[in-house]
Design brief:
With about 220 residues, the protein is mainly α. The chain is about 45% helix and about 5% strand. The chain starts with a helix and ends in an 8-residue tail after the last strand.
């Protein structure tokens, strides 16, 4: 009935000369009255179904996790846990950046995940984090070869980095470091930092993107 009323309205508009404004308004009003009458007999429950949309995920629309880079937001989340890859990432964040802001934690995590996605590095979190460990001057993350204890003493910091690790593994957009694959603290100046493109400065860390390697270089 609703569809028929709409078709009638279209035919009426085509048939009426542009100058006959009053006649057109009258006929359009009549059509709208018919439509309202048709809608009035539709049950409220059915109307709600027709006019409401399901959540984006149920409509097949991909949604990205939304993260607020704030300690209060992290505190509102439940404690996190996971598999060995989560463990490796959480440990790296704990030993490399636990004193940083929430943004700083996510930024360091981004670097690790960016390396996993880069064919020049191992294809797993644990592989990236432990690359070079045990070989002199070859470790990629200093805490894996500094000879210090790897015991977790700060429980609150551990819970904090664990939540960040889970959010990163759940697909949080990497939007802080511009695709960085390297970082260092402001206290040092490694030789490679003069060749790489700096992409961000967050807290006590500087972030860099490694130049794209080509066959000529």
């Amino acid at each position: 009935m609703i569809a028929a009323a709409c078709v009638a309205a279209q035919l009426a508009l085509v048939a009426i000369p542009a100058s006959a404004e009053e006649t057109m308004a009258s006929r359009l009003g009549a059509v709208l009255s018919q439509e309202r009458a048709a809608l009035s007999v539709v049950p409220d429950a059915r109307m709600a179904q027709l006019t409401s949309l399901p959540p984006a995920g149920e409509r097949g629309i991909q949604t990205e996790p939304v993260v607020i880079y704030d300690d209060a937001y992290l505190a509102s989340l439940p404690a996190a846990s996971g598999n060995d890859q989560w463990q490796c990432l959480a440990e790296a964040l704990y030993f490399e950046a636990r004193g940083e802001s929430v943004r700083g934690l996510f930024a360091v995590g981004e670097v690790i995940l960016n390396r996993v996605d880069n064919a020049a590095y191992p294809g797993s979190l644990c592989g990236v984090i432990n690359q070079g460990t045990g070989r002199r001057y070859a470790c990629q993350f200093s805490y894996t070869c500094d000879g210090k204890s790897k015991a977790i003493h700060e429980q609150a910091a551990w819970e904090r980095v664990g939540k960040v690790a889970k959010l990163l593994l759940d697909g949080t957009p990497r939007e802080l470091t511009g695709g960085a694959t390297h970082f260092h603290t402001t206290a040092v100046s490694p030789s490679w930092s003069r060749r790489f493109t700096r992409t961000a400065t967050i807290g006590a860390h500087l972030f860099y993107r490694e130049p794209v390697r080509t066959a000529s270089n």
